[in-house]
Automatic annotation (TrEMBL):
<dbReference type="GO" id="GO:0007059">
    <property type="term" value="P:chromosome segregation"/>
</dbReference>
<dbReference type="InterPro" id="IPR010998">
    <property type="entry name" value="Integrase_recombinase_N"/>
</dbReference>
<feature type="active site">
    <location>
        <position position="159"/>
    </location>
</feature>
<feature type="compositionally biased region" description="Basic and acidic residues">
    <location>
        <begin position="336"/>
        <end position="348"/>
    </location>
</feature>
<feature type="active site">
    <location>
        <position position="289"/>
    </location>
</feature>
<dbReference type="GO" id="GO:0009037">
    <property type="term" value="F:tyrosine-based site-specific recombinase activity"/>
</dbReference>
<comment type="similarity">
    <text>Belongs to the 'phage' integrase family. XerC subfamily.</text>
</comment>
<keyword id="KW-0238">DNA-binding</keyword>
<dbReference type="GO" id="GO:0051301">
    <property type="term" value="P:cell division"/>
</dbReference>
<keyword id="KW-0233">DNA recombination</keyword>
<keyword id="KW-0132">Cell division</keyword>
<feature type="region of interest" description="Disordered">
    <location>
        <begin position="123"/>
        <end position="142"/>
    </location>
</feature>
<dbReference type="Pfam" id="PF02899">
    <property type="entry name" value="Phage_int_SAM_1"/>
</dbReference>
<dbReference type="InterPro" id="IPR002104">
    <property type="entry name" value="Integrase_catalytic"/>
</dbReference>
<feature type="active site">
    <location>
        <position position="183"/>
    </location>
</feature>
<dbReference type="InterPro" id="IPR011010">
    <property type="entry name" value="DNA_brk_join_enz"/>
</dbReference>
<keyword id="KW-0963">Cytoplasm</keyword>
Length: 348
């Protein structure tokens, strides 16, 4: 294949020097391979023969069958590959330097309202409490685990992959902090509140010991690192992402709230923090976003809540009703912490 050796070297470079995850490197490899295969079909035999028109031809051929977001990712991967090749003098010039990334429509994230999120957490906690009547100790342990999972997802805003990667030693209950390994193996420390601490404590003390001795089999777990994993599957190994998604969907049904997945809890946590007056940089740090632009999506979600809050009348000094819009925005945003659930921050 055209550029096969160069692509292999580039992917090794991404792994060793850029700290990209195995999933990202695999996606980049697939994207660049597809591009090189197309170029090879056009009769190109060497990377130095590739021009901007050839790349545009590849883009035009693939665009009808791929979403814009997929094409944007492909362009990023191809640009990175040719920039790397040019820097190492493997090609005389970078043909992809002026290749434009397709515009991607910004889709606002799905979020629960604060009352819906509270109902979901309460439903999970209630089932864990009612689980004392379960006939099987393992089923009781499952209920306690599920409550701890949804509480931690909402309290910390972590990605589902970050949750399943947590180890027991990553949780500092005394400080209410958890160490999280994010994209690119970057680490951060995230606080969590009292309800999440209670749920995790219950799981560690009463639920996890029941599942920990089990081993073997396949199902809702992966790997063999059960002794270290914070959350376990029913066979005693580290729980996997599919099982966590099943838990979240089940809790949403139980609480009779819109059907959401783990990522919607992440979106909800971020939006509710902003609604409660959190600084955008605080939310960025909690979520592990490398760019503030990514975090700013949540300001578009929370602005609707803010406007509704401004429009609500409240008692004035003379006993009459007046609009919140008369109050400076800073006063309202910093005064809204009553709706900022204590599940989100350790100091609430």
């Amino acid at each position: 294949m055209l550029g096969e050796k160069e692509l292999s070297d580039y992917l090794r470079f991404c792994s060793d020097n850029r700290g990209l995850s195995a999933r990202t490197i695999r996606a980049y490899g697939d994207d660049v391979s597809a591009c090189l295969a197309r170029l090879s079909g056009l009769g190109i035999r060497g990377l130095s023969e590739v021009g901007i028109d050839d790349l545009r031809s590849w883009l035009a051929a693939d665009e009808p069958s791929h979403a814009r977001s997929s094409m944007a990712r492909r362009v990023v991967a191809v640009r990175g590959f040719f920039a790397w090749a040019c820097e190492r003098s493997l090609i005389p010039a970078d043909p992809a330097a002026s290749l434009m990334t397709p515009k991607v429509q910004v889709v606002l994230p799905t979020v629960l309202t604060s009352s819906e999120a509270r109902a979901m957490m309460d439903a999970a906690d209630g089932r864990a409490s009612d689980g004392a009547g379960e006939p099987s100790p393992r089923e009781r342990a499952r209920s306690v685990r599920d409550a701890a999972i949804v509480e931690m997802l909402y309290a910390t805003g972590v990605r589902v992959a970050e949750l399943v990667g947590m180890d027991v030693n990553d949780v500092d209950r005394a400080q209410r902090l958890v160490r999280v390994r994010g994209k690119g193996d970057k680490q951060r420390v995230v606080p969590f509140g009292g309800p999440a601490d209670d749920a995790v404590g219950e799981w560690l003390e009463k639920g996890r010991p029941v599942l920990a001795p089990a081993s073997g089999g396949t199902g809702d777990e992966v790997g063999s690192d059960g002794p270290d994993a914070l959350f376990l599957g029913m066979r005693g190994r580290r729980i996997d992402q599919r099982a966590v998604r099943t838990v979240v969907h089940e809790m949403a049904r139980l609480a009779d709230v819109p059907d959401v997945g783990p990522h919607a809890l992440r979106h909800s946590a971020a939006t509710h923090m902003l609604d409660g007056g959190a600084d955008l940089r605080e939310v960025q740090e909690m979520l592990g976003h490398s760019s503030l632009t990514t975090t700013q999506r949540y300001t578009h979600v929370s602005i609707g809540t803010m406007r509704r809050r401004y429009d609500q009348p409240f008692p004035g000094p003379d006993g009459g009703l007046r609009s919140r819009a008369a109050i400076p925005a800073e006063s309202v945003s910093r005064g809204g912490r009553g709706e900022w659930s204590g599940r989100l921050k350790g100091d609430c």
